[in-house]
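Quick one, probably user error.
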């Protein structure tokens, strides 16, 4: 799915992603992760200080002013 097709029909909104203000055209957490080119696995996402289960990424809407935290798990020891 291309960035253009994701952004069509969505109004830009201002959100905070990992502490940085951004203007995005995304409807859901899944859309945002695609726009950010985030990996498909090994992520945890929090929306307004509540963890979003991976099973809900496609249905969890992003609203203007939301604060999103994305954490990528890194293996090691």
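Nope, works fine. Designed sequence:
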């Amino acid at each position: 799915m291309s960035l253009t097709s994701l952004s069509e029909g969505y109004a830009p909104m201002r959100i905070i992603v990992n502490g940085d203000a951004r203007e995005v055209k995304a409807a859901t957490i899944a859309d945002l992760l695609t726009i950010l080119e985030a990996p498909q696995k090994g992520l945890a996402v929090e929306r307004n200080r509540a963890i979003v289960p991976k099973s809900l990424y496609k249905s969890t809407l992003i609203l203007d002013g939301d604060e999103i935290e994305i954490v990528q798990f890194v293996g090691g020891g």
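The radius of gyration is 12 Å.
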